[in-house]
Amino acid sequence: MPTAAVVGCGDVSIVHFEAIERLAGVELLGVCDVDHAAAAQANERWGVPAFHDHRKLLVAVRPDVAHVCTPHDQHAPVVVDCLAAGVAVIMEKPLAATMDEADKIITAAAEQPQVKIGVCLQNRYNAAMQAIRAQLDTGQLGKVLGGHGTVMWHRTPAYYTSRPWRGRIANSGGGVLINQAIHTLDLLQWLLGDVTAVDGHVGRSRTAPGVDVEDSALVVLDHRSGARSMLVATSANVVDSPVTVEIDTERATFFVRSDLTVSYADGRVDVVPERRGFSGGRGYWGVSHQLLIEDFYDRLEDPQPFWLSPREAAKSQHIIEQVYAGGYGG
């Protein structure tokens, strides 16, 4: 029976706790958070020992899998220690707040190839994205011309004051691009292929005390295939609108806004409904976290690396690093 622990008991941890609870045969052994109140709340809710230092948790309960849900700048030290202890890791995106820190995770994973590690880029498990990828892989729709994605979300000043790390580049690594839109950026490079050139910029259209991260971004990607894609993202919208993704080929256009609509050049139209399900997390997170975590546990004994490895996750973070290198405007 695999055993688990959760390190970091903030907002996103709920989907990890729910996934562990729903997985047959997986036992939660402990929780950890440097915030004593958060650790105490998790201890009361899940009835397992709480720790304030992940190293003490690793020694005391020795889980088979650690779910790392900490703020971005805390990812690398926790993940590296878990891998060194022989504990498998399923971690939240991004790899780290900076690419230098992300590289430490990549190196640690390479040094411990027998220890499984996966990164939660769960939108690849969405029914719509799986359907698009399957059709593109057939090669029957002609040349892939390009695509675009939009993330038009809403974040209030309270979002940052409730978790101050979110609004500080030193802790989060950035704003809407690395924290919210990284999933959509990952989908564009996954569906359209390796990126050979990156252009774009980020900026702040609104200001809040203590917040130095961007709330808006525009990214243009050239892919090795010759396709071009664009991402427009903001957290200054008035509501959390559904993320959209469009992929254009010679013989069909794929458009995702929750469900997938496929419009073929011959006039046919297909619709692929997205999976729906209840979660204690935010509604726009969807249900694919559960699918990814289930898949990770199913592959624990597989000697091959998990397909959403640190190296795979680094592709989107490399793109983001290049955009951030251009500096902040606005």
Write a compact overview of the structure shown.
The chain is an alpha/beta fold and about 325 residues long.
- Cα(first) to Cα(last) distance is 53 Å
Total number of helices: 12
Q: Main beta sheet: strand number and arrangement?
A: 9 strands, mixed
What is the helical fraction, as a range of percent? 25-40%
Mean pLDDT across all amino acids: 94
SSE run:
EHEHEHEHEHEHEHHHHEEEEEEEHHE
Rg from Cα: 20 Å
Tell the overall outline: globular
Low-confidence stretches: none
| Alpha-beta classification | alpha/beta
DSSP summary, beta strand count: 15
> Strand-residue fraction?
25-35%
Largest beta sheet: what is the strand line-up? 14-13-12-11-7-10-9-8-15
Tell me about this structure.
This protein has helices spanning 13-22, 36-46, 54-61, 75-84, 99-111, 127-138, 157-162, 169-172, 176-179, 182-192, 288-298, 310-325; strands at 3-7, 27-32, 50-51, 65-68, 88-92, 117-120, 144-152, 195-203, 216-223, 228-234, 244-249, 252-257, 259-264, 269-272, 328-329. Helix 1 (13-22) crosses helix 11 (288-298) and helix 10 (182-192) packs across helix 12. The chain contains 12 helices and 15 strands. A 9-stranded mixed beta sheet has the order 14-13-12-11-7-10-9-8-15. A 6-stranded parallel beta sheet has the order 3-2-1-4-5-6, sandwiched between helices. By secondary structure, it is of the alpha/beta class. 35% of the residues lie in helices and 25% in strands. The model has no long low-confidence stretch (mean pLDDT 94).
